[in-house]
Amino acid sequence: MSSFKIAIASGKGGVGKTTISVLLYHQLQKTMNETISLVDCDVEEPNSRIFFPASTQTNKEVAYQEIPMIDTTLCSFCRKCVNVCEFNAIMMVSALEHAEVNESLCHSCGACEYVCDRQALGTKRVAIGEMSQHNTSTGVLYEGRLEIGSVMQTRLIGMLKEWGATDHLTIYDAPPGTSCSVVETLDEMDYVILVAEETSFGLHDLKLIVRLVKALQLPFGVLINKAGLGTTPLKAYLEQEHIELLGEVPHNLEFAKASAQADIFSNIPWSIQTSLERVTQKIKHKRVEL
Amino acid sequence: MKVVITSTSDSLTSTFDRRFGRTAWFCILDTEDDAIRFIPNEHLNASNGAGLKAAEMMGELKVSKVISGDFGPKAKQLLDKLGIQMVVIDEADSLVQEIIERLNYTK
């Protein structure tokens, strides 16, 4: 089997990215003859695993970032490293023989080390988060969890994607919005499912993420979640822009209550089930087409 | 000693700038000889680390005291490390000149 990477993204938060991700993961597992992976890329607040209380952790790895350290006994305070740093992460006060690297600004590009004539730069490892692998009933779930206070979201997402890379179908649950973390998640995807809801904010933020996936030149389609809940003419926008509507998952209060209790799979209403089956069929076709 | 006041422009009649890292100008008062000069903040529009760069500059200029409206956490930490006193005032409409007068440094 070849790899096929699908990201589940949305401009707006709370539209049901994670719900759709885990439901599709579950549905694909049932219908496909291969191990499906789910990668929770929302490293600032990973929550896909909530829906798999019986899952067991099978692997774990701490993600590190290399931060340069300046040895002021070797440093000549020439400021080459300061000037080459794109992120203003190096502070140097020659008058006080003070030189330091700010961890939260450093992107570990290595430029400072490269330009230093006196080898005054060493490195230290700083933990930016943790990556873990879990066995759900038939598939594998990967989760990234950012260290509190760290701003290295994109780095951790990149590492997680590499760590959880497989040669089969993988679903990537993206963070909400259109920020750097989302761009990092969408990088190298084969297909993107944009989850949307028919509300004013839903349409507004859908337009933002549509602009992003178009700029990234990624094939995508829209899945309306909680259909029937809002009244904003989202479908008119899709028609006007010639955007493919992958399906509509109807709003169902009982199902919402159950999923709020993390009990999502035991009683999937037939209307939602039918919709999921149609979407998974479309995903299978996309895989062949793309 | 040198005292810095963050300023929106480069004259004594400029209004005080409440931001430290992203102030437009720094007004430097040397209490030894009453000399006053203004230097622009070249990191005003930096995407990252403007406050740290401003704090670094204070260190290079051997400033003892900085008067501003607010200091970001990173700038605060570095200014502390460099032993530079931070003074926070919350009067947006004050002119730089008025603040200098209130400092009341007499030779």
Give a written overview of the molecule.
The complex is a heterodimer of chains A (290) and B (107). Chain A has 2 domains: 203 residues, P-loop containing nucleotide triphosphate hydrolases (Rossmann fold, 3-Layer(aba) Sandwich); 63 residues, Alpha-Beta Plaits (2-Layer Sandwich). Helices cover 32% and strands 28% of the residues of chain A. Chain A is built from 9 helices and 11 strands. In chain A, the strands form 2 sheets. Chain A has a 9-stranded mixed beta sheet with strand order 3-6-7-2-8-1-9-10-11, sandwiched between helices. Chain A has a two-stranded antiparallel sheet with strand order 4-5. In chain A, helix 1 packs across helix 9 and helix 4 packs parallel to helix 5. The two termini of chain A are 14 Å apart. In chain B, 36% of the residues are buried. Chain B is of the alpha/beta class and 107 residues long. In chain B, strands 3-2-1-4-5 form a 5-stranded mixed beta sheet, sandwiched between helices. Chain B is built from 3 helices and 5 strands; from the N terminus they run E-E-E-H-E-H-E-H. Chain B has one domain: Nucleotidyltransferase, domain 5, CATH 3.30.420. Helix content of chain B is 26%, strand content 24%. Classes of the chains: A alpha/beta (290), B alpha/beta (107). At the A-B interface, strand 4 of A face helix 1 and helix 2 of B.
Features:
heterodimer; A: about 290 residues; alpha/beta; 2 domains; two-stranded antiparallel ribbon; about 30% helix; B: about 110 residues; Nucleotidyltransferase, domain 5; about 25% helix
One letter per element, helices H and strands E, the order of chain A comes to EHEEHEEHEEHEHEHEHEHH
Rg of chain B is: 12 Å
Across the major sheet of chain A, the strand order is: 3-6-7-2-8-1-9-10-11
Q: What is the beta-strand fraction of chain B?
A: 15-25%
User: How large is the count of helical segments of chain B?
Assistant: 3
CATH superfamily of chain B: Dinitrogenase iron-molybdenum cofactor biosynthesis domain
Low-confidence sequence ranges of chain B = none
Query: What's the pLDDT, averaged over the residues of chain B?
Result: 92
